[in-house]
Amino acid sequence: MLGAIGLDERQESAYRALVALGAAEVTDLAHRLALPELDTERALRRLESQGLAAQSSARTGRWVAAPPGVALGALLTQQRHELEQAELAAALLAEEYRAEAAEAAVHDLVEVVTGASAVTHRFLQLQLGAQEEVCALVTGKPIAVSGMENDAEEQAAGRGVRYRVVLEREVLTLPTGLLELSAALGREERVRVADRVPTKLVVADRSLAMVPLTGRGAEPAAIVVHASGLLESLMGLFESVWRDALPLRLGAGAQITEEEAPGPDVMDLEILSLLLAGMTDASVAKQLDLGLRTVQRRVKGLMELTGVTTRLQLGWHAYEKGWVARG
């Protein structure tokens, strides 16, 4: 618990024991901690350098604990100050990076990472650096890191980063597939399943993406894509796969079930048909005896459901899905 202020396990145990006793000889403390006297004395010297313990002036070889409220408070204040300085330095570096990236050369927009260790490190780093959302397409053939090894996912989700993940159905047949999925759903991640996903992909905060560069059998390699038109295309690919995938949920008895694909209800279809026939929102509302805002809210909901930004795209999507008939 006190590792944050620079103490290891032995040093923390020594300080806790010294606090409990008030003062103690090295021999007694070593016996209490089940440590060699030399290791115990080293721990006490470290505590002395941190202002957490001191040798008694009244008795040689006797050590006294510094009051936790004072000693630990001072260390925590120093730690906060150092953290604030580090945050300031990080903010300045980020600002400098953004200024450079504003006029980045084309070759700076794509970073090639080679080797299993480097790919794994960059993959975990990308998630740990996310602030808002991580989107991922997961295949049944990991490139360099499996779901069970992805500690960064749990850490990021634990601090509030949202996850949207589409699994290839093959993942569910892997030995650890259901266990990984249960853990993800338990962290309230949004997970969907598709028969196939086009590629393995992870996107952090819509500003950084990573995709594999090599197939099976070759040395693991990946490309990291920074903000660019290519990144927007990769994000569009994810959204397309996400829309067509089936949501998964954790039911009673920890059973994982697939939900029905979301779609419009009868009223939505009537509104779509009338709009595609050329009627205005106000005319549709009057025809169906609805409020104008109700019509507009339902149209907005359909646009969000299909992931489109214009009504023209919504009409095309409705025809493609067979929600309305041509002619």
TrEMBL record:
Residue ranges that the Swiss-Prot or TrEMBL entry lists as coiled coil: 76-103
Nucleotidyltransferase found in the keyword field: no
Domain named HTH luxR-type: residues: 261-318
Record organism: Streptomyces flavochromogenes
SUPFAM superfamilies recorded: C-terminal effector domain of the bipartite response regulators
SMART domains, sorted: HTH_LUXR
InterPro entries for this protein: Sig_transdc_resp-reg_C-effctor (IPR016032), TrmB-like (IPR051797), Tscrpt_reg_LuxR_C (IPR000792), Tscrpt_reg_TrmB_N (IPR002831), WH-like_DNA-bd_sf (IPR036388)
Protein name from the UniProt record: Helix-turn-helix domain-containing protein
Keywords in alphabetical order: Coiled coil
